[in-house]
Write a structure and sequence with these properties.
By secondary structure, this protein is of the alpha/beta class. It has a domain at 81-363: TIM Barrel. Helices cover 34% and strands 23% of the residues. The protein has helices spanning 2-21, 99-107, 110-127, 142-151, 194-206, 225-236, 249-258, 271-280, 298-311, 330-335, 338-343, 348-354, 357-363, and strands spanning 25-35, 40-50, 53-58, 68-79, 81-86, 92-93, 129-134, 159-162, 166-168, 188-190, 212-215, 242-246, 262-265, 283-285, 323-324, 380-383, 399-402, 405-409, 412-413. Strands 3-2-1-4-16-17-18-19 form an 8-stranded mixed sheet, with helices on one face. It has a 4-stranded parallel sheet with strand order 11-12-13-14. A 3-stranded parallel sheet has the order 5-7-8, sandwiched between helices. The two termini are 37 Å apart.
């Protein structure tokens, strides 16, 4: 009897192992697939997702008998969206004064901001953003812990590429007083020499940064090309990219020549600098606020968008969104930034590239996601109308899959706590 019981339990365990290791298949019947690279539509496609990867795609795909079938035959299916400049652990009331941000860093401890990040990251995923680049302003590494919690299955959210603490000359983006010179820490690393920059890069990576963010020009003393190159060289040794916060031609030029991957904001760049960015394939992440958020600078920024597109400067979609407004989520507020690109008369096809394939290239993940293709991660969203005709169709994401897991279906977001976490 004991022997029979041992045999029975062994068989049960074997069945469990086989079941656990068996491929998990999901089939999506896609009425219209948006090819973001060619800006074309492929109709009546079948997408087979196996263990989080697109394993087959086309009109004739063998459907496994055990596959779960999702009917999106009336929808436009496209890659998950990418936000290349955001701040999950920073939330400000909808007011124009920059001081609100200063008080946030003083009054809200890192754990509280991490909790804000949980809500913000969930809303971004629900809105259709399956990957984001979180470029700092997260206290003492709230962004690293947020990324880890998502990766380990504790909470739902996008794939996060985070920068850790911002690296800046003394003072960061604040004007300090001599009696309290450390008030901007740990929000910022103060680094004023090439040696200090290298050390700040190393410490950031040690504490979980996946990208480096430099504040180049928020003080009268700015980083030189040599300073920036020290950070870029140190980061590149660890296969880490550098994003440079820069508004003006001279500082942007220094960053571009030093080898950064992107210029963040770049609000007042000339055609010469935009051409230099094209020549050296440096991305512009414009963070161009809707008119009601930034009325004084709006027309200047719209003009810069038009010029960058005409010149052919590579651009990725990023918002710098940190506001809070009743009745809105971080995701819905992020989509408001589409208005600026529509106002600048950028074609919907290119805006969609900014939000997918361009973002993936900038973030260094194009070999794994950003387009719908066999062998890549199954980051898939769906809308009811053709976004190539009207980019505002993106507001209507009703299906979200990230790495093969369905988080939103029929406009309902759902997430089940996995039986095993910390994987």
């Amino acid at each position: 009897m004991v022997t029979d019981m041992k045999t029975f339990l062994s068989l049960v365990a074997l069945c469990f192992i086989i079941s656990a290791s068996a491929a998990q298949n999901v089939v999506i019947r896609a009425g219209h697939v948006v090819d973001v690279e060619s800006s074309t539509i492929r109709d009546n496609q079948i997408i087979l997702v196996t263990d989080g990867i697109i394993s087959a795609m086309g009109e004739d795909v063998d459907i496994p008998a055990d596959a779960r079938v999702v009917d999106l035959s009336d929808s436009y299916v496209l890659p998950g969206l990418i936000e290349s400049h955001t701040h999950m652990a920073l939330t400000r009331q909808a007011r124009r004064d920059f001081g609100a941000y200063y008080f946030t860093t003083l009054l809200e401890p890192t754990p509280y901001r991490a909790i804000q990040g949980v809500t913000n990251s969930r809303s971004m995923l629900e809105t259709g953003f399956t990957t984001i680049r979180d470029v700092g302003n997260a206290g003492n590494y709230a962004d690293t812990d947020l990324r880890r919690a998502i990766e380990e299955g504790w909470i739902p959210g996008p794939k996060i590429i985070n920068s850790g603490r911002l690296i800046a000359p003394f003072g960061g983006q604040f004007h300090l007083q001599p009696e309290k010179p450390d008030l901007a820490e740990p929000e910022y690393f103060f680094a004023d020499t090439p040696e200090e920059l290298r050390k700040a890069v190393r410490q950031n990576v040690h504490f979980g940064a996946k990208v480096i963010k430099l504040i180049v020009d928020n003080q009268p003393y700015v980083y030189t090309e040599n300073d920036i190159r020290a950070a870029v060289d140190e980061a590149s040794r660890m296969n880490i990219k550098v994003a440079a916060h820069a508004y003006w031609d001279d500082t942007a030029r220094s960053a571009i020549m030093a080898g950064v991957a992107s210029i963040e904001h770049g609000s007042y760049l000339s055609d010469d600098i935009l051409q230099l960015m094209k020549d050296r394939h440096v991305y512009l992440v414009g963070t161009d606020f809707p008119r009601e958020r930034s009325p004084r600078a709006y027309d200047v920024r719209i003009d810069r968008i038009r010029r960058a597109f005409r010149i052919g400067t590579p651009m990725a979609f990023g918002t710098d969104e940190t506001w809070y407004r009743d009745g809105e989520t971080r995701g819905s507020l992020t989509l408001e930034f589409l208005e600026s690109y529509v106002e600048a008369e950028i074609p919907a096809s290119y805006i969609l590239k900014m939000m997918t394939v361009n973002g993936a290239e900038l973030l260094g993940i194009l070999e794994e996601r950003g387009v719908l293709r066999e062998g890549l991660a199954a980051d898939i969203v769906a809308v009811s109308e053709n976004p190539l005709d009207d980019i505002m169709a993106i507001h209507g994401v009703h299906f979200v899959m990230r790495d093969g897991v369905i988080y939103k279906e029929n406009n309902h977001f759902h997430w089940d706590i996995p039986l095993e976490i910390g994987r």
